[in-house]
Amino acid sequence: MNALSDAKLLQQFLCGNDEAFGALFLRHYDYLYGYALQILQDETAAEEVIWQVYVKFHSCPPAQRPQRFRIRENIRAYLRGAVRYGCLDYRRTKAFQASKSSLDDHYHLREEEAPVEDGMNYAQMCDQIMHKLGRHSQEGKVFAMRLEGYPPDEIAKNLRISRQNVYSTWHRARHKAQSVLRNCA
C-alpha cells in the first residue's frame, strides 16, 4: 500500500477503502503534526486536532465521500487546510472556555453568592448586561445562549446565522458584559 501514489490512495479512499486513507494519513502525519504544533504550540493539542481530522475523514460513509471531500489532486494541501481549520476551532473553543470562566471567576458570577459591593446579585447583574445588550438583539440572544452552554453550531442553527457570526457576536457581547461588570464592582 505504501508503494501507491497519493492520487491512487485517494481514489481508493473515495471508493470506500479505509485502509488506503490510513496509509495516506500516516504518510503525511509528521508534516501535519508539525504544522499543528507550529500553530498551537502544544503537543497534546496538536495531536488532538490531527486525530479529530482523521476521525472526520474516516467516519464519513463511503457513499458520501466523493461529494463531501472535493479533493482535486494535492491531498497534502487539503489535509493541511483541514488541520488549520481544526486548530482555529480548537483555539476558539479554548478562548470561549477561558472567557466564560473569567466571567465566572473574576466577577464572581454565581447565583448562590451574596450580593456584590453595590448590593447587586447575580440575577441583577445579568439583567443589567441583557439591558445593555438588548434582550431581543442578536448580541443578547447569542450571549444568553452561550452562557446557557449551547455550542456555537447550535446557536448558528437556531438563530439562522453563520458560525463565524456567532463567534464575532459573542466577542462583542462579552466585551459589553465585561464593561457592565467593571462598573458594578
Q: The CATH topology of the largest domain, please?
A: Rna Polymerase Sigma Factor, Chain: A
Q: What is the number of helical segments per DSSP (H or I, 4+ residues)?
A: 9
Structural class: mainly alpha
Instruction: State the low-pLDDT regions, or none.
Output: 106-117
Tell me the name of the CATH class of the largest domain.
Mainly Alpha
Computed over alpha carbons, the radius of gyration is 22 Å
* CATH architecture level-2 label of the largest domain: Orthogonal Bundle
Number of strands: 0
Helix proportion: over 70%
Biggest sheet details = none
**What is the chain-wise order of helices and strands?**
HHHHHHHHH
Strand residue percentage: under 5%
Q: For the terminal residues, how far apart are their CA atoms?
A: 64 Å
CATH superfamily of the largest domain: RNA polymerase sigma factor, region 2, helix turn helix motif
Shape: elongated
What's the rounded overall pLDDT mean? 76
The domain tally reads: 2
